[in-house]
Design brief:
By secondary structure, this protein is mainly alpha-helical. It is built from 7 helices and 3 strands. The chain is 48% helix and 10% strand. Helix 3 packs across helix 4.
Length: 164
């Protein structure tokens, strides 16, 4: 007999980079109230912006779908094929900061392909739909979407010109 196919859920879980999968697992083990507490804990862990971006939000992209001001930028290491991600969010916006911290921890420094392969339903996988409003969850989805779009634009701009 042949081996049974892998369930789609397992395949989808494998699509998450290791550090992001660990965060999702951490949230999955908690009750709704505890999930909110963990999100707030993440908000306190968002790294400070490097000095080159302080007071220079014009060098960053605003994610207008977020209810609170959130800015992001990526720095690319084409030799390694990786991206470093930086976020700016005010301390009085803990939900937004928490989402940014999760994405920073889970994606920053990964290879372009790994980031692009992250499923769009990441915010749902965290199981926060009962603790956070849909509008706030949309902000996290928008952050991930902007990161992926920026990587695609960068890859297209750095691709060798065909023909000629």
């Amino acid at each position: 007999m042949s081996q049974a196919p892998t369930p789609q859920g397992d395949a989808a879980a494998r699509r998450l980079p290791e550090q992001l999968a660990e965060v999702v697992e951490e949230f999955a083990e908690l009750e709704d109230r505890q999930k909110l507490e963990l999100l707030l804990e993440f908000s306190r862990e968002l790294p400070e912006l490097p000095a080159r971006y302080l007071n220079s939000y014009d060098q960053m992209e605003e994610v207008v779908e977020c209810q609170s001001p959130l800015f992001l930028t990526l720095e690319y290491d084409d030799a390694a094929g990786t991206a470093a991600i930086f976020f700016a969010a005010p301390p009085e916006a803990p939900t937004t900061r928490g989402f940014a911290a999760i994405l920073h921890e889970g994606l920053s420094g990964l290879r372009f392909e790994e980031i692009l392969a992250v499923p769009e339903d990441l915010s749902e996988r965290l199981g926060l739909s009962k603790a956070i409003t849909p509008l706030r969850l949309r902000g996290m989805t928008a952050m991930l979407g902007r990161i992926k779009r920026n990587i695609r634009v960068h890859l297209a701009a750095s691709a060798p010109v065909q023909g000629g």
